[in-house]
Amino acid sequence: MTFRFKSAAFGGRRIASMAAAAGMLLAGAGAASAATVVKWLHLELDPKYVAAWEDIVKKYEAQHPDVDIQMQFLENEAFKAKLPTLLQSDDVPDFFFSWGGGVLKQQSETGALQDVTPALDADGGKLRGAYSPASVSGLTFEGKTWAIPYKVGLVSFFYNKELFAKAGVKAEDIKNWADFLGTVKKIKAAGIVPIAGGGGEKWPIHFYWSYLVMREGGQKVFEAAKTGQGEGFLDPAIIKAGDDLAELGKLEPFQPGYLGSTWPQALGVFGDGKAAIILGFENTEANQRKNAGDGKGLAPENIGRFAFPAVDGGAGKPTDTLGGLNGWAVTKKASKEALDFLAFLTNADNERAMAKSGMLLPVAVGAGDGVTNPLLAESAKQLAGSTWHQNYFDQDLGAAVGRVVNDVSVEIVSGQMNSKDGAQMIQDAFELEQ
């Protein structure tokens, strides 16, 4: 993979001006110096969002004519496959998208990344103070920060208001896990599929296990497990979380064939009105529309959302949240110009603009008022009151353990494994990584 000056996909911007500059050099303008190139590797598929980034790049380059920001796209799976090699190559990007968690930690240990703590703490911590404390701490390991915060995500339940009314259930009545199970039973009794599930990709099901671990054990139990303390993943609270998930599975709440369904297919099931509930990301309203059979999906006013409920007797708080914490990982040899551009990309004005377009839930302090979509605003409000925001378990625990978490979650909910055996498998995988 080669970083081109500007690919046709991004409009060939500034080629003419650079060609003119090259002509001047050939004419003997030897005092002129080449622009500092900043290579940006991203995964964004939506052309509207890429266009928003391009506008930000144009503004920055107008203010810094000696800097050339080059954008390079890689598809998600190709990114995961090629990044380790790319980081050791001569074509390494200056910064790239990161999900944070254990994957970022492992990358930091290879020596391929730049510790951005000094940049955050320069000028009396001006840049550090520009972001929410939780977003910085989530990208920090052993006192060093390895990515510039970009956005935060939230997993919560979304529901079809019309189907809820048909089944005679109300979201506001779901206060705890028992209430949720009771709601699932009533929806099924009304002849409606309760939940759209993407069991084929497995990770969508791990959201249930993860949230139940958080509700049963709380932060103390999970932090102990992932740092190898106490009983680890064999803690009784974690086993109990598996029992809770198995109880849901016994109700057969998902659409037929869910074990082979991808996440886009699950979104389509929800968007087509064929299931009442889906547990998904903050941008579920937009994504169900894209994946619905008619390309329109459910009308926004027909979609509601509610937080993952509490578990009676559990140590976790109902205000503890699960979701992404994304940033831009900076590579070892990245220039100061790359860091300066990242500070610009993620400043309050630009994050506010991106939030208004529906791109993200911002991490920049003061940018929250940019969230105008009602459902996104609800997610932002919940995050603002979060007592513990936990990154996705399969990301936080690293790729190897994360895969086992995803496998186990599906095995438990489908009745193919009991919760104790599942906890043992995760513990075994964790110990192999130590």
UniProtKB/TrEMBL annotation:
Protein location: Periplasm
GO cellular component terms listed in the entry, alphabetical order: periplasmic space
InterPro entries listed in its UniProt record: Bact_solute-bd_prot1, SBP
Signal peptide positions on this chain: 1-34
Keyword Signal: yes
Pfam families registered for this protein in UniProt: SBP_bac_1
Family per similarity comment: Belongs to the bacterial solute-binding protein 1 family.
Cited PANTHER family: ARABINOSE-BINDING PROTEIN-RELATED (PTHR43649), BLR3389 PROTEIN (PTHR43649:SF14)
Name this protein carries in UniProt: Extracellular solute-binding protein
Organism encoding this protein: Rhizobium leguminosarum bv. viciae
